[in-house]
Design goal:
Number of strands: 5
CATH architecture: 2-Layer Sandwich
CATH class: Alpha Beta
CATH topology: Nucleotidyltransferase, domain 5
Radius of gyration: 14 Å
Largest sheet: 5 strands, mixed
CATH superfamily: YqgF/RNase H-like domain
Number of domains: 1
Shape: globular
Helix content: 40-55%
């Protein structure tokens, strides 16, 4: 079962995809858009979905505070989920993404990736972390 993983930010969206069996996640790209222009992001996500058809599910990172509360960023992700649901019939799973960017940064630092290169791929690595944690639990 091929899955798409998304790490939505305010100006970027990291994208990852699983293999056809739904075992391993890999990076795809970082979508860049104007601050809070989620319509533009949505259009680009739909293009990625078409590129990797068939996608059977989308795993969207849900940022939560450390106490488990959903804050403003989490509410934006929930709204983005609703926008995606209006455009596709693919099931969308909200997945707790606490600390995924920190994990992604540490992974890149331990791989001795330069700060400049880390900035370009950290969202993709965060999307892989979100998707892989979902795949590992299911």
């Amino acid at each position: 079962m091929r899955s798409l993983g998304l790490d939505l930010g305010s100006v970027t969206c990291g994208v990852a995809v699983s293999d056809a069996l739904g075992i391993v996640a890999r990076t795809v790209k970082t979508i860049r858009f104007n601050k809070d222009d989620y319509e533009s992001c949505l259009k680009q996500v739909l293009l990625v979905i078409n590129e990797f058809e068939p996608i059977q599910q989308i795993v969207l990172g849900l940022p939560k505070h450390m106490n488990g509360d959903v804050g403003i960023r989490g509410e934006i992700c929930i709204k983005f989920k609703e926008m995606l649901e209006e455009k596709t019939d693919i099931p969308i799973i909200l997945w707790d993404e606490r600390l995924t960017t920190v994990i992604a940064q540490k992974t890149l630092i331990s791989a001795d990736v330069s700060r400049k290169k880390r900035k370009k791929v950290v969202d993709q690595i965060a999307a892989v972390t979100i998707l892989q944690s979902y795949l590992d639990r299911n």
